[in-house]
Design a protein that fits this description.
single chain, alpha+beta, 3 domains, eight-stranded antiparallel β-sheet
Length: 388
């Protein structure tokens, strides 16, 4: 790898993410008009109504959720959608922001959950060349230490993710290694020095043993799948309005829905039954009758569901000051494992995967109880969603 031209794993993922970014407003407007058989003027007028309502939807969300097909949704169904642009204002309004770092730093969050009796991935080491210490964890900062750890643990598989990363940018899986080089999925072999200097760069990483999907899921995912549990925490317990399982496909090693081909399915919170099979298809989300290549996914009940509900509640209550949060939970043969706990959780994935808005009366009441106000735009540029 040429260090002068090398990009880190995180930068490569961000480049891929941006290369597949959404079309322009004009392109989406024309697309919606052609698909619906209605005029551009009609589409724009209806979009303006939603953009200026409490939902604040942008054009990408309007099209991706299929809301331009006006007759497919009642007024109440359309009103339940909420823009992901409002995620951070709402999240900050609900939560004790002093806890954000504890959740988003994966080393800290994993340590707290493990101490609280929650199953988490086995962290082999932290790759970090800064002066930070990681109590209870091995720290790697040299090529020699990296080589020794990889060769000692290669049989169990190794997966890396950025300590404070989001949307799986920079994630890697080590496939092969010898005394001089290692290879990560989708990348050419590199020396250990190049791996640290160029591929890792200035980021800090957790290096973990690779988890394996439960056999009930192995036919439907090419890498580790996780269940996104949307959590709303109160003194009465944890309310989960939506659950989504994210299934990597093809050569993808991570389950983020932005990665081409990945599948997301709504899961019935009460039973663990898969209710939808969704996949991004250009500017829209397509809903399949079943897995597009391997039948049997639709209607399947996820294994260990009762245990997953219990471990999700325990993790959520450890981080109870984060009242609006989400978890990503893997289902292995031995049971559920909490891979991450998130400060907040985007509104886009639950809506894309379920095909409906998440702002139900109960969800809205929860947000409003923490000072969020959902009002239409009263004049240009005025955002009427705030705390207090």
């Amino acid at each position: 790898m040429n260090s002068q031209n090398a990009m880190s794993a995180a930068a490569l993922d961000e480049k891929s993410y941006l290369s597949a970014r959404d079309s322009t407003h004009k392109d989406l407007l024309i697309y919606a008009a052609r698909k619906s058989g209605r005029s551009v003027f009609q589409i724009q007028r209806e979009f303006n109504r939603m953009a200026k309502s409490h939902s604040r939807l942008n054009m990408v969300e309007y099209v991706r959720n299929g809301l331009y097909r006006y007759d497919d949704h009642t007024d109440a169904e359309r009103a339940a959608y909420i823009s992901n642009d409002l995620h951070w204002p709402i999240t900050h309004a609900c939560n004790n922001q002093l806890w954000a770092g504890a959740a988003e730093d994966k080393a800290v969050a994993g340590t707290l959950m493990a101490l609280g009796g929650v199953a988490v991935p086995n962290t082999l080491a932290v790759i970090d060349r800064s002066g930070r210490l990681y109590p209870g964890l091995t720290k790697i900062s040299t090529p020699e230490a990296m080589r020794n750890l990889v060769l000692a643990n290669l049989d169990n598989g190794l997966f890396g993710k950025i300590v404070n990363g989001m949307v799986s940018f920079g994630a890697f899986r080590i496939e092969t290694a010898d005394a001089t080089h290692l290879s990560c999925t989708g990348h050419a072999p590199m020396t250990y020095e190049s791996f640290l200097n160029d591929f890792i760069g200035t980021n800090a990483y957790l290096l973990q043993s690779t988890l394996t999907n439960h056999s009930d899921l192995s036919d439907y995912a090419s890498a580790l799948a996780t269940v996104r549990m949307v959590n709303m925490v109160s003194d009465d317990g944890v309310y989960c309005p939506l659950a989504i399982i994210k299934l990597p496909q093809g050569a993808n090693i991570a389950d983020a829905f932005w990665r081409p081909g990945n599948i997301a399915c709504e899961v019935d919170v009460a039973t663990g039954k898969i209710l939808t099979v969704a996949q991004r298809d250009g500017p829209e989300v397509t809903f399949h009758q079943d897995h597009p290549h391997t039948p049997g996914l639709m209607g399947r009940t996820l294994p260990h569901w009762d245990k997953l509900i219990a471990i999700n509640a325990r993790a959520a209550q450890i981080f109870a000051p984060i009242r609006y949060q989400s978890t990503d939970i893997a289902i292995t043969e031995d049971g559920p494992v909490v891979v991450e706990l998130n400060y907040g959780g985007g509104f886009d994935l639950p809506q894309y995967a379920s095909g409906r808005g998440m702002l139900t009366p109960k969800v809205r009441a929860f947000f409003e109880s923490h000072g969020c106000k959902f009002e239409p735009v009263r004049r240009r540029g005025l955002l009427r969603l705030a705390k207090g």
